[in-house]
Amino acid sequence: MADCRRAHVFVSGTVQGVYYRANTRDAARERGIGGWVKNLADGRVEAVFEGPADAVEEMVEWCHTGSPAAEVEDVEVEYTEPQDEDGFEIRY
C-alpha cells in the first residue's frame, strides 16, 4: 500500500471503563483500519492504527472525542513504519 500510515496513539483522561476500547475497535473496523487498542496500567489507552493515510488521520481525530462517556484530556501520536497489521482487535 503506497499511501499506508501507522499511528501509535496514547490517550489520557477518563478513558477506561467507558467503552473506549470497544468504540475504538468499531470505529477502526468501519474505516477498514488494522491495529489494536488496550488499556494501560497508568489509566491511559494505547492504540495502533494502520491503513490508508486519510483513514488513519480520521481515527487519530476520533480519539480526541472517543466514546460518548469518555473525557479525553490528551492524545499523543507517534508515526512509525507500517507493520502490515491485519484486522483490528482489543488486546488485554
Automatic annotation (TrEMBL):
Annotated catalysed reactions: an acyl phosphate + H2O = a carboxylate + phosphate + H(+)
Superkingdom in the source lineage: Archaea
Keywords noted in UniProt: Hydrolase
Residue ranges of domain Acylphosphatase-like in the record: 6-92
Active site (catalytic residues): 21, 39
GO molecular function: acylphosphatase activity
PROSITE patterns: ACYLPHOSPHATASE_2 (PS00151), ACYLPHOSPHATASE_3 (PS51160)
KW Protease (keyword) present: no
EC class: hydrolase
Pfam families xrefs: Acylphosphatase (PF00708)
EC number(s) per entry: 3.6.1.7
Stated family: Belongs to the acylphosphatase family.
Protein's UniProt name: acylphosphatase
